[in-house]
Task: structure prediction
Amino acid sequence: MGNGIAHVFALKGYNVVLVDLSQELLDKAMATITGNLDRQVKKEIIKPEDRDATLSRIKTTTDLNDLKDCQLVVEAIVEKEDVKLDLFKKLDAILGPETIIGSNTSSISITKLAKATSRPSWVAGMHFMNPVPMMKLVELVRGKDTSDETMAVIKETSERLDKVPAIVNDSPGFVSNRVLMPMINEAAHVLMEGVAEPEAIDTVMKVGMNHPMGPLTLADLIGLDVVVDILDYIYKEKGDPKFKPAQILVDKVKAGELGRKTGKGFYTY
Result:
């Protein structure tokens, strides 16, 4: 998600600082961005000079302090509340007082993340969809203390990225995953019960319900570990059993079968 977010910002003329834990991860991210830009050139979506200019606008670093002059920071790390809270505290100490901190979290409370900072009015959710260069939606999440000014800035910024912003209020899973995750979870239960094979489940939802991809294919794309993290978080916050992860999801994560990123999930890649 991080490399996709960097891609779309740099493509639209923004100077981007891309931070990760190691140079190896940064090199992998830049290779992904370059490959995705090359595909856009091949499809004549952008020109070769646009690709070159986009890449020139992205600076990579492993040092959070290199973010100190940024006006907007979008966090896109693992979906773990404690890890995000720690990062938000660090960012708050580094960034200028009016820098907006956006989170690409798909479920965790923006209000809670904001309270880890001294600038809760400048914190909001910017939940991009995967793959970021292709998907139009950005779910903009207003925390309890998020200011109108912050929401206006991130809405305008999203539109400059040629995205479609949808403003929602802070709630576990927001709108996207509050609705999507029970569907994926139920598809996993249907598979466990032997009602149908993965291909049939996905075909029913694609052809019968006009979904662009089936729920099990989508789960593999998201990452089954991320799916379980989101379900666990919403289940903990809401207490609704429909969010308790299906055992097959838990078992696959334990087995390291996380979907596309590991070559195997509900399908083999």
Q: What stands out?
A: The CA atoms of residues 93 and 117 lie 8 Å apart. Strands lie at 16-19, 58-61, 72-75, 100-103, 123-128, 137-142, 164-169. DSSP finds eleven helices and seven strands in the chain.
